[in-house]
Amino acid sequence: MVQQNSSMNIGEIKQQLAKKTVEFRTGGFKPGDAATESWIGNVYLYKEAEEIPLNSEGDVMYPLLQLHVASLPYIPEALKNTAVITVFVGYDEPIDSHTPQGDGWVLREYTAADQLVVKRWVHPEPLFKTYPLKPGNAEDDFPVWDDPAFPSAIITAIETLEEKEEISNYYDAVNLHYHHKLGGYPSFQQAHNGFDEGFEFMFQIAPDDKAGWPIEDDNNLYFTKNAQTGEWKVYAEYD
C-alpha cells in the first residue's frame, strides 16, 4: 500500500516503489550448460512432439527468445511454476495487444514437469543473430515517470523533494533497467495506456543491435500474464 504522505524522503519512496528484476546482457561470454541457458534469436528447447510454430498464413515463424526461468535469481510470483518460456514471431507482422497468439507471435510456457528436448533447428532464412543472454543479479527496478500505474501520492512526494532541492530529479535518484529483463517494471519509452485489467507485466524484449532486433521500429515488447487464467498478452510501445 502506498503511503499517503508528501513528506516521504527518497529512501522511503524507493522502498515503496522497488520491484525485483533480472536484466540480461547480450553475448560477450561463452555459452555454458545448454539445458539452462537463455538466448536471443534462438530457441532449441521443445517438447518431443513440437516443432517451430506456423503463423496464420502457414509460414514458419522466427525463434526470438528463450528464457530459462527456473535458473534465474528472481522469479515473479506468477511464474513460480514456470521452467522455460520461448517466444516466436512472424516476419513483418503487427505485434500488439490486439494481436492474438498465432497471428504475429507465439509464446510457449513450460513447467518442470514438461519433458523438454534439444532441437537444433535453424530457420532457412534467419532474421536475427543468435546470442546467449547472461542474467544479472536480482536488483531493484523502478517505473519510468510516464508509467500510468505510477502512484499519484508518490509523484507528489517526488515533486516536493525536487522543489526542496533534496533531489535533482527522479531519474538521478533511482536505477532503471532498460534491456531485456524479467520482472520489475516495463520500460515505456513514451506515454502508454498500460495493460488490461488482470494482466501483470512479466518480461520485456528490448531493441537489441547485436541480435538485429527489431527489424524496423525501435520499440520494446511487453509480455504480460493473467495469473488467474494463465492467458498471455503482448503489448507494443504504441499500444
Describe this structure in words.
- The protein has 239 residues and is mostly beta strands.
- The chain has a single domain, classed as YwqG-like (Hypothetical protein YwqG fold).
- 10% of the residues lie in helices and 28% in strands.
- It has three helices and twelve strands; from the N terminus they run H-E-E-E-E-E-E-E-E-H-H-E-E-E-E.
- Strands 6-5-4-2-8-1-9-10-11-12 form a ten-stranded antiparallel beta sheet, with no helix packed on it. The protein has a two-stranded antiparallel ribbon with strand order 3-7.
- The mean pLDDT is 91.
DSSP, total strands: 12
Coarse morphology:
globular
CATH class: Mainly Beta
The CA-CA distance between the termini, in Å, is 28 Å
Helix content: 10-25%
What is the correct CATH architecture?
Roll
Domain tally: 1
- Looking at CATH, the homologous superfamily is YwqG-like
Radius of gyration computed on alpha carbons? 19 Å
Low-confidence stretches: none
Give the strand order, joined by hyphens, for the main sheet: 6-5-4-2-8-1-9-10-11-12
Largest sheet: 10 strands, antiparallel
Any idea of the CATH topology? Hypothetical protein YwqG fold
Strand content: 25-35%
Number of helices: 3
Order of helices and strands: HEEEEEEEEHHEEEE
What is the average of the pLDDT values? Answer: 91
Helix/strand class: mainly beta
Pfam family, one: DUF1963
InterPro entries: DUF1963, YwqG-like_sf
Protein name: DUF1963 domain-containing protein
